[in-house]
Amino acid sequence: MREAKSFCRMCGAMCGTILKMDENDRILSVHRDRDNPMSNGYACFKGLHADQMHNGPERLLHTMKMMPDGTHQRIDTEQALDEIAAKMREIIDADGPDAIATYTGAGAVLTATAYMILPMFRAALGTRSNFSTATIDQSSKFVVVDRLGAWTAGKPALADSDVILLIGTNPLVAHATAGCLVNDPVKTLKAARKRGLKLVVIDPRRTESAKFADIFLQPYPGEDPTVVSGLLRLILTEGWADDAFIANWVKPGGIERLREMVEPFTPDYVANRAGIDADELRSAARMFAQGGRGAAFSGTGPSMSPRPNLSEHLVELLNVVCGRYRQAGDRIHDINVFAPPKTVHAEVFAPTRGFAQVPPGRIRGAGTLWGEMMTSTLPDEILTPGEGQIRALFNAGGNPASSFPDQRKVVKAMKAIDLSVTIAPHMNTSARLSHYVFAPKLQYERADIPMILYDFSFYPVPWGQYTPELARPPEGSDLIDDWYLFWGLAKRLGLPLDYFGESIEMATAPTSDELLEIRTRGSIIPLDEIKQYPGGKVFELEQYVQPARPEATGRFDVMPEDVAEDLAEVTAEPLPVRSSSARGFTHLLQVRRLRETNNSTSIMIEAVRKRMPYNWASLNPNDIAAMQLSDGARVKITSDHGSISGVVKSDDSVREGVLVMAHSWGGLPDEEGTEAGSNINLLIDTETNVEKINAMARMSAIPVNITLSA
């Protein structure tokens, strides 16, 4: 038996691990690396059972092809690539390259070589049909940058903060709130609280993070615009805003317009509508605004609920009106060591309203955001005939059939498409619907570096780590590196692949290490130096925010007319709004994340299934008693779009009138109600209750009824 250091890639936290392996390089167990300078010995439940994903009986070990009867049989990988390339030529000749789409799922995002090959492949192919996880759950953040602008120096680090506000995010479980509690979150938060950090949490569920809060507001789901507007009104009327920051960096007239629009959101109005205490709202506003340094952070809660674009805009306005950004002279801790050096200035990146500069899309008028099409429209792009119809889909490490809203429509589209190709470690719901399925090397079988998104750092300090291939793929398997699919197709189609100005070798396949070298060329810390520290290293780097440049004329547009219109629609809604009582719905379904899973990927782990055999339908104990239910009762959950089954679980962290379930569970629609769990996407409609700009569907705060199953 031998040991080797690496890091987990089951989510963005990338916790340090130690692998115990036998003489055949088979993983026997996974342990915390207590010396890792980033994760400090922390690793979550799913990460510590990754050996079961590598060695589990359900793991896919060969390339598979769908037969005419819908079953899948083994096929040689190179033959599969030949057949796919031939079909692609046929589609391109008939309908052009835009008929071929790629979807970048979490598996690709968390694999550096896969993530970087996809834009190369699309550019070489000439397709603009680009979809990813970014437009499933947080596309509103892109909209905010386009409409409000962004502060180029970023927010204060947690280590420099006196107060933080979390709304609709639970970093102690999700590990995904960039800039706040990504790594070793519990111990980090405890240490920050011990030194005096104040914490305000706003969430419809008393989350794990909320248990550490000085002030916790528990509104009804979907009332984020109401609560945040109430906070903004208090901050502005009480004189708690940063007037100097506003004068320097906000577009003239904007604050006056903001004051006007939030005036109806008095503490009493907010309390009545959102179901919170008016005095606690005031205390939260005071604590955040007068608490010193620190910022407000949001997660998937606001961006998956009604009016996500408005919600995210208002949350960021908390930082604008209080000046909660790094200023000239502040130290930058979160330096991306894998990127080239860059100077950071304390100034505004002006709003470009880029979404308005692209032509409307075919489906519900949705265009593109930052070069991406809207994921909720992908099934319609496949099903809707005419110019621009998508006929082929390459699914890189995602599971659209389980994660996209309106599951029945997604399944219909995947059955109708001419060519579907999936990279998946097991036959998940999407793989079962795909014409070809490629089995990838799993995390410890590939060379890798931590996640890089848009060249900003996901990590709080200048940390770098490299892992070589450590575990040997199972004997007799036919696995590929995720990037190899796209390189192999480009070779067959005669397409050159260019990345960062360098042409990729096309005669023979490059190695993952060669691709990583290209990706990190010119980086602050050379990859060769990072390789000298197998357990990772936090590098001693000093960088400070520089003053704004003389030519920096960008200003925040705090209340553009379309945002004002959205906010006016909120104030015009009759009360009460929370239960959609005209239809008789009794509860609001709130979607949550689980520590044991990352979307649908780790559900295949045996230890996870034992611990979480179902995505429970969590209800307040008083609701369970009032409905004469009990723990373990099977219920029917019905929205105005569909119905699913659920297994009741008592949870006093859930407020009355709210139902909480995790997403991305369950099988295909005709398997609903089996032991695989239930897919809440069967309850979601993608044609009504969607956003104007990004076609974001209402994926949380869904009005439902709950009845005992027959």
What does this structure look like?
This protein has 710 residues and is of the alpha/beta class. The chain folds into four domains: 2-55, Phosphorylase Kinase, domain 1 (2-Layer Sandwich), CATH 3.30.200; 64-137 and 354-538, Rossmann fold; 139-335 and 557-561, Dimethylsulfoxide Reductase, domain 2 (3-Layer(aba) Sandwich), CATH 3.40.228; 574-708, Beta Barrel (Barwin-like endoglucanases), CATH 2.40.40.20. Helices cover 30% and strands 16% of the residues. The chain is built from 26 helices and 28 strands. β25 (634-638) and β26 (643-650) form a beta hairpin. The longest helix is centred in the first third of the chain and has 19 residues, at 77-95.
Alpha-beta content class: alpha/beta
Which shape, going by the Cα principal axes? globular
- What percent of residues are in strands? 15-25%
Number of strand elements: 28
The span between the termini is 54 Å
Number of helices: 26
> Assembly state here?
single chain
Percent in helix: 25-40%
Question: Which ranges are low-confidence, i.e. pLDDT below 50, for 5 or more consecutive residues?
Answer: none
- Strand ordering within the main sheet: 5-4-18-17-16-6-7
Radius of gyration: 25 Å
What is the CATH domain class of the largest domain? Alpha Beta
- Average pLDDT reading: 94
> Which CATH architecture of the largest domain is right?
3-Layer(aba) Sandwich
Largest sheet: 7 strands, mixed
Domains, number: 4
